[in-house]
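Format is sequence with structure; example below:
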Amino acid sequence: MKKISLNDLLKATGGKALSTKATEFSGIGTDTRVDLSGLIFVALKGEQYDAHQFLDAAVAKGADALLVHEKPATFSSLQNKITIVLVEDTLKALQNLANFERRKSKAVVVGITGSNGKTTSKEFTAALVATKKKVHYSKGSFNNHWGVPLTLLAEPATTEVSIVEMGMNHAGELTELCHIAEPDVVVCSTVGQAHVEFFGTVEKIAEAKEEIYKASPAAAIRIFNLDNPLTHKMYEHSLKTQKSKRVITFSAQDTKADVCLKIDELSMSFLKISGMIGGEKGQAQVAVFGVQNLTNLMVAASIGLAVGMTAKEIWQGLPACKTNWGRNQLVHTRKGAEILFDGYNANPDSMRALLENVAMIKNSGKKIGVFGEMLELGSHSAELHQALGEKVGRAGFDLVWFYGPDADSFMNGIKTSGFKKSIMISNSYEQSLASEIASVLDKDDIALVKGSRGMKLERFVMACDPLDFSLNKN
């Protein structure tokens, strides 16, 4: 990590040094459960916790400085042990420090948002760009008002491209994140119904997502998805209102786009794709599943162009892309069945994308669907789960299990579809049902498993005696 001096810390945060021991630090820490040697411990205060209660623990873990917004109760015993800096608000100080360090960085900063696939797009982009450049990127979904600053502050000094995922639940959040990160390249991969609970309509979600283009520096390269109607409108708005340094477009349909890819072959374990990238024809085989990942691959290819990779380098680098834990993850079982585990997130759009793949999967055994509740749908939840039931019922499954609070609505939908095969419904996860389904899984069967993270669908995967799966996320 890059070193942070006490002078820079005070300058960036407007803080006051209550005590001074160390004057240079190796980074930022927020978790007293891990080694904090040489770090500045930032005492963040959330809705359910206040890290000011753990200052002694931070010192015990080796922290060299404490960033606080209230004088520690144990100040007299701490002042001779550690540097203590007092600020008005530790979260705002963290954000200001991140922006201060970002402005010193020579790395190209890439901001990625989207209703579906932003984390996968980030992972694909990191894998692709890393084939030619030194890359730093956030692990997992470190994409909010504290995750983005921590990602920027963890950037090694040698970084050439820093890839930052940007999430949001409310209007104004992406504007705030863009003011912190000041990205050089930005993209909204898709707009869909994720977080509709907080916005009410997809159009309002689109307005909030568009902030990534409006709030970024004028010189930023803006990348647009021409296939999604709402992101296409953003492209049109940008052409009319913003004088961008450069615009890059991608599409699976518009051959005039800078990146235009299509799927030639799909299996449970790979996609074969071909098309044009930056005017150069090519093809690649990528070890990922699902038509929906074509968008994520086009995002990565577009960012590759934006950060200076040649079309040839991008074509050569695409096979490096892969999915991570819980995101269209292929799992093999001891009995020979395969499971596609997509339990990291779910909303109506990502569910539809998964179901569109079912008919394309060629196998000689049974197709089994295991689905958990889609969360954060608010007052729309019942109708959206009924619609999901109808889609699932027509997707070609031999057996379906749905569990969650909207089980009755799902059941109404699957009945409407005319589904005549086996169905199980429960309001919560039941180990007995998981074991019953696991017992009928045979060689050549496939199980598609998807739901929101809070439904913990990995429990079903473990019930199926997997050979290559862990409860620990990568």
About this structure: The chain has a mean pLDDT of 94. The two ends are 22 Å apart (CA to CA). Residues 4-90 form a domain with the Udp-n-acetylmuramoylalanyl-d-glutamate--2,6- Diaminopimelate Ligase; Chain: A, domain 1 fold (CATH 3.40.1390.10).
